[in-house]
Queue: 2 jobs
Job 1
Amino acid sequence: MSSDSEDASPRHVGLIMDGNGRWAERRGLPRLSGHREGLANAHRVVEILLNYGIKYVTLYLFSTENWRRPREEVEGIFQILEEWLAKETEFAREKGIRIRHLGKLDGLPSGLRGGVGQAVDLTRNGEALVFGLALNYGARGEMVEAVRRLVRDGIKASDVDEGLFGRYLYTSEVPAPDLIIRTGGEMRLSNFLLWQAAYAELYFTPVLWPDFDRSEIDKALAAYKKRQRRFGALSPSG
Ligand code: IPE
Ligand code: IPE
Ligand code: MG
């Protein structure tokens, strides 16, 4: 029994792509070049994970706290994201990838909002992999929004349980992440999937996101396979 879970690949991988700005700064390039390179790498990483048979990937693209950055950087990121998303939507259709959105569309520029809507619509029948885009996403905001909708739906306090609450989050229909990878050296979640990550295995690497390539992915997956997941029990089999 225990070897089953130890050998298993993660079903759901969460990716906190950090270090794009530093990657550019170290090369004397503007930070936006780092964001562009970061998204090009996100495409490569998702393709590799798809080929590895991973069924769910959630990518942290822009947090609700990232609005605190200078306006030019925020606007530049949105512009680059819009172009990337159009190409990614085509790729997703070819490969049978289903794109989902986690976060608030309100506040995003209309072109990007439209792009997200199209990506979700045009890929809704994809079954090879579910690709979650955490864009204008924050986990605390997600939970507050869930509570608001529970109240609006007139749900009785005694009917609220973990399962029901989970269905009010952006990730209803998606299993909890098994592995969350953060590049760029910081060891924190920065408001990413706080509820869903309760039992995720966390993997931190100093490698900057644009340099996070196949060999680094392999290292992360190998580290995951060595973890013993107990979920509070004394052994993986319970
Ligand atoms: C991650 O890279 C992308 C976003 C948060 C939008 P950063 O832009 O945070 O890169 P660093 O951490 O400044 O290097
Ligand atoms: C986290 O990276 C958000 C995304 C990767 C989109 P940040 O660079 O914003 O995180 P902090 O500010 O270092 O916590
Ligand atoms: Mg950062």
Job 2
Amino acid sequence: MTDASIAEMNDLLARQRAAFLAEPNRSLKARREDLKKIEAITLDNQQAWVEAVSADFGHRNALETRLLELSVVARGIKDMRHKLAGWMKPQRVSTPLMSMPGRSYVRPDPKGVVGIVSPWNYPVQLALLPLATALAAGNRVMLKPSELTPNTSALMSKLLADIFPAEQVSVLEGGPDLAEAFCALPFDHIFYTGSTRVGRSVAAAAGNNLVPVTLELGGKSPALVSPDYSIDDAAHAIAWGRFLNAGQTCVAVDHVMAIGDAERARTIGHAVAQKAETFYPDFADNPDYTTVIAGQHFARLESMVEEARAAGAEILQPAHDPDAVRATRKFPPTVVINPPENLRLMREEIFGPVLPVLSKPSFDAAIDTVNAGDRPLALYVFSDMSSEIEHVLDHTHSGGVTINNAMLHVANDALPFGGNGPSGQGAYHGKFGFDELTHQRAVFRVGRWHTTRLVAPPYGKRAKSITDLALKL
Ligand code: NAD
């Protein structure tokens, strides 16, 4: 990070703040136009986005980029455009008797300049959706995308510069040094998506400036499978929820806890491996299977699996040539059955196509394991019995939950998307995002006369009776 770029970031922030002060409450019409512009660059450049993302990953199927990035952004923006008028309206609230006469309402004010830091795993969606949300809330945005997706970041930077002045939206490309300096800027809000480790330092930097922060982080999202649940249905959903995007999804199924004996875990593990085989036959050359983003992540996954192998765990992998897949970064879809729980596989977020399947004697034993770790970003329960589902929900905490499938709660904009404790704080999607990036300003408008006249000093009998009354109301 050079001084020039720190100076450049400070200058941009000053210019954005000046522009914000000149137009502190962008009109509904202007915000809708902002959103339409982002929708247009998303939908009109599908091939360019697909190619940029695939080049950054090594390979990713066009369908996954169109379905999991472009359509998510476009649908999210449509929802915002339709509902924005209602969200922007001041909300009248009740006024207590003692404060009457008067009117109370909550005014959703823009915050100002929002700093957004995005990760590499869904580099379009996780940058453009927070950006659109911030603009819908009337803010200006400085965006720092991931250094691991330079093609996507360059395309995004160009397309956004074509439709927005730098005083409204600007993209700053750079690595961790720049990101660190970026998060030390006195924004009006920081919206960070990435790992829990970096999230801690972002929170500390924001705290120094008393900047409010949204943290969309990671963690180990478990799937708990009831002893009576259909193996085929569970295996299908779990294989989809683990191997999509080669497991590089924040809400991917990180590991499975099969309720029952060791044999039940084996049966489920083999069924998931079979599904992976059906989804991605000949995975190394399969065009539907995504590559691991970078060599260091490939090596990290290899060493996790080797540690499990050395510990004697059963490992299911399709036949492959290790050197060849290392060269192309297509990591074999891997299932690890009943690994010891002190391994890295069970301590760290895996974030790749490797799935440990453990056996737990009861739901309560699985719940104890969940509660002994960090609160996960997502939790999955596979059961046909409401009593089992409610028991798990009542006794665990997580950012969100999908029952009898994986990841789908994230696809509904009527639900908040966010973590819980170490998996994040704050939430977005739909109205939750609008509220997150809005200052809820309390306004109380009094009439010409107000009860405060009756309780003003010097305190006499009347003030005392009113205070007595206030304590009884
Ligand atoms: P990362 O934390 O390494 O990087 C994310 C961003 O942070 C990048 O833009 C990077 O430049 C920046 N960064 C790096 N060092 C920084 C610093 N010291 N200060 C400020 N910013 C810094 O994460 P990643 O590897 O890109 O993403 C993977 C992680 O993100 C996983 O843990 C995953 O679960 C999580 N994730 C969460 C969500 C969610 O919505 N909750 C979505 C996607 C990914």
